[in-house]
Every structure is written in structure tokens, then in C-alpha cells.
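Example 3.2
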Amino acid sequence: MQDSVSLYVHVPFCTAKCDYCDFFSVPCMKGIDDGYIDALLAEAAYYSSFYSSLKPVSGWKTIYIGGGTPSLLSPSQLERLLQGLKHLFPSTDPLEITVEMNPETLCRKHLDVMTGLGVDRLSLGIQSFNEKALRNVNRHCDVKTCMKALDLVKTVWKRDLNLDVIAGLGGISAREFEESLYGILNWEPQHVSLYTLTVEEDTPLAKRIESGEEWNPDDADRQWMNGRAILNEKGYVQYEVSNFAKPGHESIHNMTYWKQDDYIGIGAGATGSIYDFSASGGFRYTNTRDIKQYCGFWTGNSITGEAIPREKELLPLEIEEFEYIMMGLRTLAGINSLDYKKRFSGLKWNGDLSARLGVDDGLWHDYVKRGMAKTSGNDYSLTEKGLLFLNPFLTTL
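Structure, written as C-alpha cells:
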């Protein structure tokens, strides 16, 4: 939809942080202050007006509430947030609304609120059905709690369910990982996000490994590949590097990122991107991580006229072009030469995707020969094998 824009809402609060996590979040043991909801709604109102001044817009294309742990919101806070966001464009319903939840903080009232306000997708962070794997990364939820939450979801929730799974959490064999994944799939989610554990700098996990703890990335990769085979066997289609869905249940919101469509980010630490495929390019911003500063600004307690507390970077057309290829080739659909020409005719390749990729005798030609890429009419995509070599492809490109 050309007249709508996607919205990401960041809820940066967790009861505890897992050892592998480098997403912005802060400890929260006593509940989220209502002032944070006030700030979110004020920021959303600002951007709904600001974006409308840049491009014609009549509604939110998608809404995605992520974190952190959005299920730390009380049901009444979640209801107020959803109602407030939808009220900004009362005549247009989003194509999709997704809310992330964690098993240990999910309750029946959350699900009732989500059902009543038209939430389409519940995304639940399961990660593993193996206790050793969960303990190895100090995951603050055990298998029993996960199953209890899934029992509740199966009883109450009648819409799409995504389950997050991580390969390579450590401490378990390949067979144990497969048993865990089969157990998770018994709950019949419509969508599965299967990630390979990445050791991010300055996380507790990274520091443990630096101190000599064993961790083999090859084991993580093997587990992920075995997991992909199991998901294929169960009828899930890999439509993006880490995302698998039953046909017709792909995430519309996430496709916003991969198709390089505009998205607004609200909340402390949230990022948004506004693209402009003219010579001037677009821009990307990231909000302050100082929650007190964030709430103070958006609820009117800051100095009048103070600039929005965020970092802003320009996106020259060359950067937008590379990101278009990088994000598009993450997907099964790939990238389209006609779309590329429309967006990037001002660059040195004159909008010729074939020349950019090296279709005749360059990199793309080599990947096709090796069974790692394919061309179908105006569409260029990597094969299942080729997706494993996306990073080397981009580095060489």
C-alpha cells in the first residue's frame, strides 16, 4: 500500500537479560510506568503528522510491538496503547498487528485484549524445549513455563502464532536440538523464526567465551541446517533467511524491512527509516536509550523547542541501493529488475540490475553456475543453498 506506513513500537523492559542478548532493554521488576505509554502515544502522534507532511498517508500499514518484553505491559496498558495507535488513523485498519510476548509474563487477559483489538499475530519467545540449553544462556524461563503458556495460547488464541527458536544455545547435542524443535512444532505454529545464535560483543556470553568457555559456531550452524530440514519436512516454507511460514502466513511487517519500505520506530532505542530514491536520499534515526530523557521530552517536561532526542543519519542513494540488494536477497522472492530501475536509475549502473550483479560473466553468473542463484524473468534470487552464502556474496559485490 503506497498510502500507509509501518510502525514499530519498542518496549525496552525485561525481567532479566539473557546472556546472548544485545538488544536494548533495561531491568523491570515492578511494572512499566504509565508515563512510558504516554510518551509512546505522543511520539506516534507526532510521526503520524510528520510523515503525512512528507508523503500521502492514510493509515498504519502494519503495527509491530516488540522488545524487550511487551508482555510486561499490564493488559490495561496494552489496551490503551493499541487503542491510541489505532485512533491516530481511525478510518483505516492495519493489514497486520503483531505483539511479542514471553511465556513467563503472558496471561489470559493479554490475549483477550489482543483479540478484542484486532491483533493478528502473537510472537512467543520459546527458544528451546531443552532445559540445559536454556540454562546455558541464563534464559529466565524454563520448559514447564513455556508449555504452560502454549497450553493457554492453544486454548484461547485463534489467530496466527509465531514461535522463536535458537540453534546453537550450547550444552546440547544435535539430536537434543532436533528433539526440542520437534517438540515445539507439535504446537502447530503458523510461523517459526529459526535463528543461529550469534555471539555479540560485550554480552555476558561473549565474555564467557573470551574467558575460555567452549562454544563452536560450526555446531550452531549444523543445528540450524538440521532445523531447516525439519521445518521443510513439516511444510514450512523458508521465505527469508531466518523465517519460515506455512503458505499465506508470512509476516507482512517484516517484509517492510526486506522490501525497503518506510517504517516509523517509536520508543526508547527504536529505529525508523524514511527512504527517498532521488539524488538527495533518505534518512534513518535511532531514539535515545535514556528512558527518562525519552519520556521527559515526549510528555512535555523538556525545554520548549528542544530537538528530538535521537541520532539521525542521512542515507545517500548509494547506501540505499546496497541495502536494497542486501535486504532483498535475504528473501525467497529476491529482487526485481524493474523495481531496481525505478529506484536507482540515477546511479552509475543506470538502473541496470543485470550489470550491477554481473549476470553475464560476473558474480551472479558464477553463483548461477554453482546452483546458488537463479533468474526468472525480472526476478533475481538466491537458492536455498545460496542463502547460506549471502554474506560472502555481498562482500564480493
